[in-house]
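FW: tagging you since you asked about this chain on Friday. Here's the raw sequence from the shared folder, copied in full. Didn't touch anything.
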Amino acid sequence: MKKLRIDVWSDIACPWCYVGKRHLEAALARFAHRDAVEVVWRAFELDPSAPRERERTGSYSERLAKKYCTTVREAQVRIDRMIDIARADGLVFDFDRIRPGNTFDAHRLLHLAHERGVQDALKERLLRAYMSEGEPIGSPEALLRLASEAGLDPDVVRATLGSDDYAREVRQDETEAHEIGVEGVPFFVLDGRYAVSGAQPVELLLQAIEKAWSEIEAKPVALDEGAACGPGGCD
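HL: got it, structure written out here
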């Protein structure tokens, strides 16, 4: 039976990745062969050096203004635009509740979840926890609770967090991302050959999916870049 695999490099601490997930879901809902598509979430850390939980100082707009060397007002305009886009996709972003932290352990759990058949559920739970609920995404206690809510066995999650299980898989994801030139996320690779960068509109994603499905033997094609998050920030 014909199958289509979509690999998606993304990070939990990435608002455009949550928007991109919704756009992908909407595109797949309109794809006639949805049951033949496998989506695999791959690891990409926007800030590998981040501590498990970073102390918050000031508002999100103040921190963003400092990061981009702009005014707080300009930063707030940027935030408001992202909130509006998210709202149109049924998402609620609460930037002032966000608790930045290291996402490496979250990515390890996503590999565990892939083995157990609940990767998409965990990805959704982690994104909502970070972007909407102010959960400390680098905290082992929070990760244990969130992973359990997504369907993973708490004892298995606890054992995984207390080990280095899936660390190599996360690093392999990141190495592959570097090799194929991923500089911002989300980054979609369809059937290992077609690349779509950024949180593209639903229509464009659907077009890419249909093209990959119909031209299995075609050469790699890179499509236009959309809004994405990179190590330097979110565009």
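FW: The chain has one domain: 4-54+99-234.
HL: agreed, and The mean pLDDT is 92.
FW: great, closing this out.
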